[in-house]
């Protein structure tokens, strides 16, 4: 098997390869060639940790495996390690033998950024100019960097519950040569594309804060109870997702469905748009919303890509098991 350590991922993985890997696997999910296994997530009763597995099989890309890991809230304070920890294990689908072990921390950030980026590529108006951010934490910087590559944006606007964190995303905007403006939530009406990436359990962005024609990528809600945007927004938007089963149970759609504002039948797979079996955006006035819940197949796809790159560059460590 090959090992690709966490420390090597930054120099190996590019946003372009993450985008390509995630776009392909979303397409394979929609055509039925790839599927995610049920997610395991357990509070293990030690260090307040949440630990689990996200796995799947992609028959088109021949990726089989899982991401194991979770959240250790005391890591930074006690051990100087980041609180989110994960490792991806890939298996040879022909033999079942373990094929690779790959550091999953940076890959998780990159595959999540790639997901909203894929949604922007396929659903935002081509003439989108103003990029809006709701959220300014760790993941927000990755989402913004990847999003800015999808359209000719001229400006970034941002709102965050903790305004002192806004310089995190201002820096990314400025590095891309774009001006940044902090706005109140109703200032988001100026945005053509909005990415939300917060850990909120109550909506911040309301339907009245979003203009016709906007594309939203809601990326923070990945657990039962979390919510970033007004359920009424999903009722007026055309809703897309990575995985419908997750969108209705742990994504933004859980709230709109609970309030009878929409049904599961109103949600479309982003992969169908990629495959051309769903037309995607149909008018310049339509609000499109991507409910990005995060699936194991995304992790396997980017891990498989990084293993190929590591082997090509002679960086992958080969061990017998
Ligand atoms: P972080 O802790 O670095 O940042 C948290 C963000 O949420 C900050 O912008 C903070 O100001 C904001 N926030 C906190 N409390 C809030 C509240 N009550 N109302 C509004 N905003 C609030 O976390 P991160 O690593 O940037 O992750 C953000 C979210 O993204 C988390 O919920 C995480 O689980 C989720 N996530 C989703 C995926 C996916 O695939 N969909 C992948 C990775 C992370």
Architecture overview:
The chain has 321 residues and is an alpha/beta fold. It has 2 domains: 2-108 and 297-318, ornithine cyclodeaminase, domain 1, CATH 3.30.1780; 125-294, NAD(P)-binding Rossmann-like Domain (Rossmann fold), CATH 3.40.50.720. The chain is built from 11 helices and 18 strands. The strands form 3 sheets. Strands 1, 2, 3, 4, 5, 6, 7 and 18 form an 8-stranded mixed beta sheet that branches. Helix 6 (167-175) links the parallel strand 9 and strand 10 (180-182). Helix 4 (105-123) crosses helix 5 (138-147) and helix 4 (105-123) crosses helix 11. The radius of gyration is 19 Å and the shape is globular. The N and C termini lie close together (7 Å). The mean pLDDT is 97. The site of nicotinamide-adenine-dinucleotide has 23 residues, from helix 4 and helix 5.
Topology (SSEs and partners):
Layout (H helix, E strand, L loop, with lengths): L1 E3 L1 H7 L2 H16 L3 E3 L3 E4 L6 E9 L4 E9 L3 H5 L4 E8 L6 E6 L1 H19 L6 E5 L3 H10 L7 E5 L7 H9 L4 E3 L10 E4 L4 E5 L9 E4 L8 E3 L1 H6 L1 E4 L2 H6 L3 H6 L8 E3 H6 L12 E4 L4 H17 L4 E2 L3
Parallel strand pairs: 1-7, 8-9, 8-11, 9-10, 11-13, 12-14, 13-17, 15-16, 15-17
Antiparallel strand pairs: 1-18, 2-4, 3-4, 4-5, 5-6, 6-7
